[in-house]
Amino acid sequence: MYPLHEGSGLLLLAVLAGLQIAAECRGTPPCRPGFSEDVYKVVVPDITEKGQPLFNVKFFDCGRGGLVRFECSNPSDFRIEADGVVYAARGLQLPGVQASLLLIKASDDTTQKQWVTQVQMTTSTSTSQQGKEVAVRHVMSEDLKEIVFPSRNMDIQLKRMRRDWVIPPINVPENSRGPFPQELVRIRSDQGRNRPLRYSVTGPGVDQAPTGIFIIDPISGELSVKKALDREHIPKFHLRAHAVDLNGNQVENPIDIVINVIDMNDNRPEFTHQIWNGTIPEGSKPGTFVMTVTSIDKDDPKTSNGLLHYKILSQNPESPTSNMFTINNSTGGIITVAAGLDREKVPQYTLIIQATDMEGNSMYGLSNTATAVIRVIDINDNPPEFTAETFFGEVHENRVNVIVANLTVTDKDQPNTPAWNAVYKITGGDPTGRFSVPTDPTTNEGLVTVVKPIDYESSRTYVLTVEARNEVPLARGIHSPRQSTATVSIKVIDVNESPYFEPNPKLIKLEEGMMPKSALTTFTAQDPDRFMQQSIRYSKLSDPANWLKIDPNTGRITTIAILDRESPFVVNSLYNATFLATDNGIPSASGTGTLQIFLLDINDNAPRVFPQETEICEKPEPNAINITALDGDLNPNAGPFAFELAHRPADVKRNWTITRISGDYAQLSLKIGFLESGIYELPIIITDSGNLPMSNTSYLRIKVCQCDINGDCTDQQHIMAAGLGTGAIISILLCIIILLILVLLFVVWMKRRDKERQAKQLLIDPEDDVRDNILKYDEEGGGEEDQDYDLSQLQQPDTLEPDAIKPVGIRRLDERPLHPEPQYPMRSAAPHPGDIGDFISEGLKAADNDPTAPPYDSLLVFDYEGSGSTAGSLSSLNSSSSGGDQDYDYLNDWGPRFRKLADMYGGSDD
After folding, report:
1. For 408-555, where are the E strands, in sequence order?
2. Which of 10, 170, 202, 350 has the maximum number of C-beta atoms within 10 A of its C-beta?
3. Given pLDDT bands bounded at 50, 70 and 90, which one contains residue 29?
């Protein structure tokens, strides 16, 4: 059975493929939606349960999908699903004799179209079937192939496979136009002969994504496809079929169903790039590989639908021939087939490439095109050539890093490539390497440059031979022409050169201590300008110690001071002086020379003790001090030294002793067991080892102190080491205390002065203001000298409150009218007595210019206040209520104008 089914599958595949090709060639009639039958005749059980499937109807929707909606004429008893299967809506008992008629309607909600079919249902009793349950009959396609399982009476060797389903692979062409659903195969089980079964399938395309592609009739087992398949999307479906009885019990083992999607030539070849770029060197031989173009066809590559062939449709330009390239029709590799590639003539080729499937069949195959751009790469097949045979230039002598000539060349190769970039080389005329020819990266010119100084006196002209090449060698068979070599003539211009000293620096050796006006040497310079008659004058440029003098004409150097090797200007016995030589050229030139004087040491410095200060403990243990000597001279005029204590004062040798340790060191120690703390200056005679020895008495400052257990001086002794005794320290502390007392007294005096200023508020308080009181009472019969006082100035305008101004109806006639007040000067709350005079002078000027002030001799009107006064006569100022208990002595500080008031108020009772 297996070979039979496999052969049937292959035959069915071949038939379907042929039908598909024939359909593609002659066309397919348009699909018309509607039911497959106008009247369906079905047999149903006489007794049904709720939800039991009864039969199904087929509707061709022509790709409408879920837009078609089904309805039945008896919805209370029957229910129809979207897949066309009719179920029992409730438990039914149908009559067994007469047929029942059921109408099913399909509606398209989009187009508002409707289709109606009839279903005639008949029943059969169990007695007429002899106890066997009648299977539900369905409308089945008679030409649909079905796979039937072996019967029970087959060979025993097949008994174990009795319940296994043998389903060959199902081949379905892609892009089928329907009508849908389209039956594929009918699945049956031998168990369906004895009892009704229900079939179902699971897997991708049914209940797994993508869903809604396949459907199976649960009663008849017909497996159908609901829409067109796409092999490029899913080439194969793996489904699993199930068979159960009416109670849902599994009666067969699930079996796998494989549905192969048969490829159709529905995809054109697609190039991976629409524009392909390739390169090839010019002058390449035929057969040189250029590049490979690639195209992809989504159809099955195992069939002719996916087999591609390439060819070149056109070449632009067609030079030197129209077939410069060819392409491998299978791989897409492009190679050259003709010679003559020349970048200078054709720098680029453009090819139109075509890819065709069906193995290149132009009638049935699908094609697509792409563009191949082939750029011809330049090679060095053109040497550089100079634009002239000879180039000229000139340069001043001693000039370096200057360009004297520009060499220009031409090259037919591609610019800014190694085959075009020029490299220049001097092949003759420059044995000393004074010139170089770098390349200008922008213009490709050769820049003849001076790299070493040129001497006019040595050579006045240079003739160079320069060769031009490229960065890469010339192609094979190409030789450099005569034009690749040129001559460069360079003229040297003479300039005034600086004189130079020889040797420089010049070293001489002398003993130090030479007296002034001693001749040292002659330091002269040479003039390199042999063809110019010039004279040289000398001058001193640098002489740090001002020891030397040079003759301006002869260059003779003499001393003007004593040479001292121990001078700070001498380093390592070497003294440097710089001199200047200047010629009389136009313009003049000058050069410098250095004279180095090596000073030989003589014994002219006496030794001195080191260190100059030290300390020792009062007690003799430990009491030794190591000392040495410093000598500005060098050996043998320095150490070894001889140390000796001076003979005076007498207590030096009595209290101290000195012992020589080595040639440069000695040890000083106390002879006595105890020495009082203090500062001692110990004279020590030190003698060096010069040919004529020199001695010197040096004083060593020794601090004798109380020491701790470590032999170090205590803190009190450290203070004494600074040269301060106990009396000096007490004096310093007393000075600090006195200074603090003076500062405190000054602060107290300032605070008291501020309080006195605040108490003198005569010019601030209106009630105690003398000027205000005098203004209110005025003068009655005063003399002329009393009229010299402008009493209005004693009144301070800034203390008057606005609400204190009286209305016009009750104002006195001698009061000032209400006019804008003049700008009287403002004073501070506590004015300084020295500012009172300035304040009154400014107020006087403001009062003189005040139009509201009454004249001094105007008629004064006073209100009658009755006879007598408790205050007494106003002509007498010695009243008990005049404020005699107040202190008015500060009025003396306000100037001479207030002295009279001070006498009247601040004087004694007399």
Report:
1. 409-410, 422-428, 435-436, 446-450, 461-470, 485-493, 500-501, 506-511, 519-522, 525-526, 536-542, 548-550
2. 170
3. low
What pLDDT, on a 0 to 100 scale, did the predictor assign at position 276? 96
Local structure of 439: helix, strand or coil: strand
For residue 483, the SS3 value is helix
Closest C-alpha to 525, from 452, 595, 458: 595
Could you read off the pLDDT of 205-219 as tens digits, one per residue? Answer: 999 999 999 999 998
What is the residue-wise DSSP string for 340-391?
---TTT--EEEEEEEEESGGG-TTT--EEEEEEEEEEEP-S-S--EES-SEE
> What is the DSSP annotation of 600-657?
EP-S----EEESSEEEEESSSSS--EEEEEE-SSPTTSS-S-EEEE-S-SHHHHHHEE
Residue type, 539: S
Identify the DSSP state of 808: G
What is the average per-residue pLDDT within 228-239? 94
- Cα–Cα distance measured from residue 592 to residue 579, given in angstroms and rounded to the nearest whole number: 6
3-state secondary structure of 728: helix
Evaluate whether 643 touches 686 at the Cβ level (below 8 Å). Answer: yes
Q: Are 407 and 488 in contact (CB under 8 A)?
A: yes
CB 620 within 8 A of CB 674: yes
pLDDT of residue 277: 96
Give the burial class of 77: count Cβ atoms within 10 A of its Cβ; 0-12 exposed, 13-18 middle, 19 or more buried.
Answer: middle
Output the CA angle 41-47-50, nearest 5 degrees.
95
Residues 24, 28, 30, 32, CA torsion sign:
negative
pLDDT at 149: 41
* DSSP structural state of residue 458: T
CB 706 within 8 A of CB 616: no
Average pLDDT, the chain: 78
Return the top range by mean pLDDT from 233-237, 599-603, 641-645, 888-892: 233-237
Q: How far apart are the first and last CA of the chain?
A: 167
* Distance of alpha carbon 60 from alpha carbon 83, whole angstroms: 11
874 pLDDT higher than 70:
no
Q: How far apart are CA 902 and CA 910, in angstroms?
A: 14
pTM comes to 0.43
The CA distance from 393 to 447, in Å, is 11
* Cβ-Cβ contacts under 8 Å for 427 (sequence gap 6 or more): 465, 466, 467, 485
pLDDT digits (tens, 9 = 90+) for 347-359: 999 999 999 999 9
DSSP structural state of residue 861: -
Residues 6+ apart with CB under 8 A from 863: 812
Report d(CA 793, CA 846) in Å as an integer.
Answer: 9
Would you say 216 and 222 are in contact if contact means Cβ atoms under 8 Å apart? Answer: yes
Share of the chain above pLDDT 70, in %: 76
* Across 123-127, 539-543, 841-845, 866-870, least confident range: 123-127
Ranked by mean pLDDT, the top range of 366-370, 585-589, 837-841 is 366-370
User: In angstroms, rounded to a whole number, what is the distance separating the alpha carbons of residues 233 and 298?
Assistant: 10
Q: How far, in Å, CA of 213 to CA of 215, rounded?
A: 7
Q: How far apart are CA 62 and CA 227, in angstroms?
A: 9
CB-based contact 104:75 (threshold 8 Å): no
- 604: alpha, beta or left, given left = phi > 0 and alpha = psi -120 to 50? alpha
CA distance linking residue 676 with residue 715, whole number of Å? 17
Beta bridge partners of 315: 351
- DSSP class of residue 729 equals H
Listed in sequence order, the residues at least 6 apart from 622 whose beta carbon sits closer than 8 Å to its beta carbon are: 711
Q: What does the pLDDT look like over 717-732, one tens digit per residue? A: 454 545 556 778 888 9
